[in-house]
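step 4 of 6: structure.
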Amino acid sequence: MEALLPLVILSGGALFTYLVGRLSRSRTLAGFVAFVTVLGAAHGVYQGWQSLEDGTAGGWPSWTATAPLQAYLVTNYLGVFLAATALLLTGLVAVYSMRYMHRLNIGKFYALLLIMTAGIVGIGFAGDLFTLYVLFEVMSIASFVLVAFEREEWEPIEAGVKYLVISTSGSLLALLGIALIYSYTATLDLSAIAPMLAAGAGGPTMIALTAMIIVGFGVKAAIVPMHTWLPDAHSAAPSGISAMLSGIVIEAGLIAMLKALVAIGAVDFGLVLAVLAIVTMFVGNLIALRQDDLKRMFAYSSVAQMGYILMGVGLALGVPHLAAFSGMRGALYHILNHAIAKGGAFLCAGAFLWLLGTRDMRRLSGIGRRFPVVAVAFIIFALALAGTPPFNGYFSKVLLVRAGVDVGGWGLFMAVMLVLNSVISLFYYLGAVNTVVFGPVPEDGPKSIKPLPFMIVLPIVVLGVLAVLLGVYPEMGLDLVDPAAEQVALAISWVFR
Amino acid sequence: MKWYTVLVGFVTAGLTIALVTRGIGEPVPAALWIPGVNAYFALQLTGIGVYVAAIAGCIGALAILYSIKYMEPLEEEYPPTRYYFLTLLFVGSMIALALADNFLVLYIFWEIIGFCSFALIAYEYHRAKARDAGTKAFIVTRFGDIGLLVGVVVLWSWMSQMGSDNPFSISETIRAAMSGYIPIGVLSVAAFGFLAGAVGKSAQFPLHVWLPDAMEAPTTISALIHAATLVNAGVYLCARMLPMFAQVWWWLPAVAWIGAFTALLTAVLALFEKDLKRVLAFSTISQLGYMMAGIGAASVFASQFHLLNHAIFKALLFLCAGAIIHAVHSKSMYQMGGLKRSMPVVHWTFLIGTLALAGIPIFNGFWSKDAIFEALLEHHDYGVLGMLILTAFVTAAYSWRMYWLTFQGEPRAEAEPHDPAWQMAVPLGVLGVGALISWLYVDGYATNLGMGLPYHPVHDIGLVSLVRHTFTSPLLLVAGVAVVIMVVLGTRWRALGPPVPAGPRIWADVVTDTKAFGDWFWGFWVVAMKTVGMVLGLFQSGDLNYNSLWLAIGFIAVLLMFLGWG
Amino acid sequence: MPAYAGVGIALFVIGLYATITRTNLLQLVIGLEVMARGVSLVFIVGGALTGSMSAAQTIVITTILIEAVTVAIALSLVVAAWHHNRSLSIAALRRLKG
């Protein structure tokens, strides 16, 4: 039951929020209801964690799977980790959007936000491949609408169309892989597939399946060359949604891929993932270098950061399995750090966009000096993303490098590439800071600027404080990450045996 | 607020001096910081580290006192809170870096001082040049830090695989390495990484390009960070890890040759520079090269003794330069000249600093430079030694040229120069006295240096034996030749001053091109990366069909990779 | 029976080919639908092969439901694109690039 509880709360809350927003047309009220829903879901997740600690955790509807589709949802540490990260970000985005979003359709906005979060939480708890796919689609569909939420503008519509076509193609490719798995094994239960698949499918089939899973879910995870939708969608979406997309949605895609890969026993293809990761981080960083659009730059930097995370996953799945734990640890910790830092960075960019109505850095030049609190947070996020101590990004990079060193040989090379990329990324992060905070104010800029509402500043400050806290005391994140990493590492070694 | 900062600075200085007199070798309780990776927040009061901390504390205090007056003209444009915050953060981080007994702690503070350096170089953010210089400094040093991070993690990985319950501990790692528990292959990777980190931070060739540009910082920051403390971090790191990495056969020669080559190259560059601060910057790089060469000769004492002396006289020179620039409103030496009469206090202190830099007997730079020569001689590094002796002559020439252009001859400044206020004069006086007498402390220094470091080869050198040894050594000739060079240059000083360019024209061209090459090399990478980014951006065509095509291509590519590597 | 799975995969490839070559937004959406039908067919074949047809039917019906929602949203976006551009060609949707 614990696994179902957050999903029920979030879906019910979505319905209720829609009604409240529709009837009252009050942004504050709808946002508040959404926030309370997130709190309730967080309580549900906490109960799930407690039951895991007590050893009484179960699935829903039943603990063990007998038929192909019986254990829809299973409480597990990986799910708790993903849900906690997603709910943290959702709660803050709910607060942020109270002032950021327009009054029109506010109920629909919050309802979709909560449904998207329900999808992400469900991906973590999914117990079989088809449930995984359904909840993945719930997340995707909600995000299509959210990206194209401002229908009066051309940009979100164009981005939404591109996002929808590519993302749907990708998830159908993954579903095709799942269908093939089903026809070989007659089961989709995550914990039962691997041995049956090993018996049923031969080498080439297995390879094709794995490629379908990687590419299919890889579209959502923005692995180059399937990343083409990301810069458009992330820069055109409302800023709160950009933060969600970058901070957790693409990571949820990666987690879905990871769960599927581990479930089908494709755990010795780490080298391929690591090569994709290197391509991804280089492409993301190098294209980000020449962006003038602040949000588009952060979008490309998300591509690069997905490369780092994918590197951790690739090292964890590499042969021999020396880094199963350390690689997962680095990847998951980086997901947490990235959610905080990139979410915060997008919220800052959104605050500037809200003030000046532009994302062009040349027009935003010097705006940060008028809002010192936001500017300090912006600098913190930029440095955290570049992996500069004492902000949170460095620790996960240390862990990722550890994974590379543990693998040795090609792993060491990959680790050096990773750190090299974080140096390249400094170019544009510092460039953004130098322009947006320290740059000269344009002559023809607006003379007076409205003050930033408290509700926009508050989530930024919370994320900034978290970025510093996690950097100074990384153990807080490890408490959340380590059980999940152990769970995946155990599954990897179990499959390998 | 400002005087509160001064108070904090001087209290810190007092505490760091107390560490020197009472604390060396004392055990410090460690706190479990990150239980998940067994990282302790541990400090160790080693002889080397305590002195680096004391230098940071004392020179930090003097620089802050000096800043009160020096930063006043800027306060209207840039509220000074940020300046004092970053300066204190820097001093604290530098002390923590010097005392850390945990690689992770070391790495974190290593990066924090890099960040402080970036933020202070770009302090006057209205100037695009300052912003760019800060960015360049940060990125170039972090380029070296790639190696440091990988090296730290390599050692951590090995230590934790050996089952150590404190795998980040520096002292335990060194002990394990000295007992032969760490294979040479692992040590080699770590040694290369640490060397790369040190080369970046201590501005050695080929990562020296950031330091001259860093002179966009306020001069107090140049004195504190870019002369006396931050740039020493790399030397400190190498000295601290010396016994561990000395087992790797190529490490000591590599350090020595990098140091010697950097020293010679940048000394020649300093000879042709016209910006006073940039001359000092090049000379800092050059002197850091000496220290690296000293480490390359496996002599902790010589390199660290030079580190101490250099910190004092170079901070002095920078603070003098700050007073001059403050008074003359120009950084070009061709617009100074004749300041001997109008700024007597600055003149005398600057002269002391110059003589110490040139290695003239009885000033502190002389003793430590000679110690490095002796160490190289004992270590049979004759090539390195020859290069450094040549550098010593060039050093005498450029420091004397710098002095003459600034203080002798006809006044060329447009402003009316005068001696600075007491807040600026007091630090000059203190450091001037320090540059005269700091070598008298050699006895205690040599005794304390190796304390708490069981594997570091530090010989006890008494003051008397140092003096006797130095004055009976044939290497005294080096100093003699330096004096001759300075006397000759002094009689023919007009050849140095404007409008005649220094040296034959062709030399100036070569050197200008060398410098241009350094800038070009940096610019090349920036342009190259942007070009590649532009080309990659073309693939983001915005056409929906192409997006779908990329999906198909991605699938085929993954399939091919699987078939290729299985 | 496996031949039908081949038909399913072929349908999928045809749909993907449509999204790569067609320039009309409606044709793209139809391409997506064709892909989805191909996947459904593979599921049916899988159910028949493994003798668990009821589960396969459940899956296919759910898939159809999801596709219906996706297409509804896709069509609403197409309508919005039509209002902005007065064109259904993707050539009008090339402003976001680089």
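step 5 of 6: annotate
 - Residues 53-85 of chain C form the longest helix (33 residues).
 - DSSP finds three helices and no strands in chain C.
step 6 of 6: archive
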